[in-house]
Specification:
Blueprint (H helix, E strand, L loop, with lengths): L1 H13 E2 L2 H27 L8 H10 L5 H22 L2 E2 L2 E4 L6 E4 H16 L6 E5 L3 E6 L9 H15 L1 E2 L3 E6 L10
Parallel strand pairs: 6-8
Antiparallel strand pairs: 1-2, 3-4, 3-7, 5-6
Amino acid sequence: MAHDVLTRVVRRETHSPRTVATVATLAVVVALAVYVGIELVLHLLGAAPLLARPAEALDWVAAAPFESAGTMAMAAVVAVLGLVLVVLAITPGRRSRHEIMGPPHAVVVDNGVVAAAVADRVRRELDLSAGGATVGIAHRSADVTVRPEPGQVIEPARVREIAADELAGYGLTPRVRVRARVLSKAPEGDTA
């Protein structure tokens, strides 16, 4: 029982709800429904329409030339919007957080905290200056960028090994793959 509860809590903390997309979509649908309702009521009362009478609007849509650039552009916009909504409906939203080690405890940590810890370990192990290591943590990958001091030789494999060792100690779920880059500094006065 407790494990199921912790699993649900961790899922809620690591995945974002689609509330914003849902509310925005519903707001547009409600606004269109209200507008159509107002136009129908105005038509039944014999008053002037806000934009167009319902029959005139339907006739305009039916008479629109489907080969025109404007119609094709509108269709493309609607198709892209529909595709975005389908993707939002199917894919899970992810927050920039990971679960650390599993049961019997549930610990959720922000990716920025993990990145700072990994960067600190890389800086200490390789004797780099402050800002010499930059780490970005994504859902399944860690990107470690090292800027060595002039004359300092650092192998990307060593950077990857240190970062992977630090991440392995956290037991992140899902596991994070490490990519390492070593940048060379430009000589002083070089503006290229």
